[in-house]
Amino acid sequence: MTFMRDEFGNAGSRTHEYGNRAKQAVQRARDQVAASLGVARDEVIFTSGATESNNLAILGLAPHAEDEGKRHIITTSIEHKAVLEPIEALQARGFEASFIPPEPGGYVDPDRIKRKLRKETVLVSVMHVNNETGVEQPLAGIAEAIADHPAYLHVDAAQGFGKRNAPLRHERIDLISVSAHKIYGPKGVGALIIRRRGNDRPPLQPLLYGGGQERGLRPGTIPVPLVVGLGLAAALATTHAEQRERACARFRKTLLDALAPLSPLYNGDQTRVLPHVINLAIPGVDAEAFMLATKDLIALSNGSACTSQSYQPSHVLRAMGLGPERIQASLRFSWHHMTPPVDWTAVVTAIEQVR
To answer: How confident is the model at residue 25, as a pLDDT?
Structure first.
């Protein structure tokens, strides 16, 4: 808020103290994000969020891929639309994509990715934590499976960054997309981590032109207040990760105990789920009926917020092999370490009335 109200300098202005203070604040934020993932300061590129970061990672690699004659991409069928749609755009340009289906538990088998590798494979893009089910993907196994192949490894870490950072520190991961608002920072800012291989950076080209900011990869005036917010949020998430995880686990237990009388069916391998998300179905209760019955008690969804304006059956649950009725009844619950207590007795009572 200080940089929103009082410090209005442009970080790109080098001729006066206002700009210098803004630049120092941006560099401090860059250091905070870098420290949280164990990368160098100059490997952090600020963006408007993980969606832009995903696009820059995937589409920005295309010119290199075309020059090298490497037009094959491997991804999974449970990725966020911010990964699937850029890949679809490349398919329209002549690229070929292999979509790896998940196991029934919602995670991808690294061996399936390894078997799809070709000499023409330029990119493997796999999310860290699924945004709908909360299932963590086996990043270490995937990194090891492709260790001897030159393909770049991109991880959409929007849902896991700041909550489970250790897997993201794996040096085989070349590109990492993050958003501030997933770790309680401001909306509209994120970062793309571009990790070097030795002295070489992944050969990305910018999607926008018109300035030299962010090493020429993301032109435009840096939104200093938002960047400062991302940096502070990353630092706080790193410092308080264990306490936050314990608080989320306690909330999860309370939720599960309260809903137990309704005999919920859980979507995804619950041994692989982060403690702040759960996806479930209540037998005999349609998801829309559940949300209507509890709208004055809790706020929840039946899928990603990015697609909630025009609901379509979850492509994630469908890829996991769940049937139409199960998908229609499924709901996504999420919370955080500061979520206030919920009157679960009232929630269960409301559900029983529409069951």
So the answer is: 96
If you ran DSSP here, which 8-state letter would residue 11 be given?
A: T
- Residue 30: which domain range? 2-239
Check whether residue 310 and residue 211 sit in a common domain: no
Query: What total number of domains does the chain contain?
Result: 2
Q: Determine the Cα–Cα distance for residues 197 and 149; give it in Å rounded to an integer.
A: 13
Residue type, 109: D
What's the rounded Cα separation, in Å, for the pair 334 and 307?
Answer: 16
Burial (CB count within 10 angstroms: exposed 0-12, middle 13-18, buried 19+), residue 150:
exposed
Q: Which of 166, 292, 306, 346 is catalytic?
A: 306
152/291 same-domain check: no
- Which of 90, 182, 89 lies closest to 127 in space, CA to CA? 182
| 3-class DSSP assignment, residue 331 | strand
Q: What is the pLDDT of residues 132-155, one digit of tens each?
A: 999 999 999 999 999 999 999 999
Distances in Å between the Cα of 1 and the Cα atoms of 4, 19, 188, 233, 282 are: 5, 17, 15, 13, 43
The yes-or-no answer on residue 306 being catalytic is yes
Residue 334 has φ and ψ, to the nearest 5°, of: -145, 155
Are residue 20 and residue 147 in the same domain, yes or no? yes
> Which of 208, 239, 270 lies at the terminal end of a domain, its last residue?
239
**Strand pairing partners for 333?**
278
Sign of torsion, CA 343 344 346 347? Answer: positive
pTM for the full model?
0.95
Domain boundary among the residues 181, 212, 239 is at: 239
Alpha carbon separation from 204 to 43, 156, 168, 262, 297 (Å, rounded): 13, 16, 20, 50, 46
Q: Is the pLDDT of residue 262 over 60?
A: yes
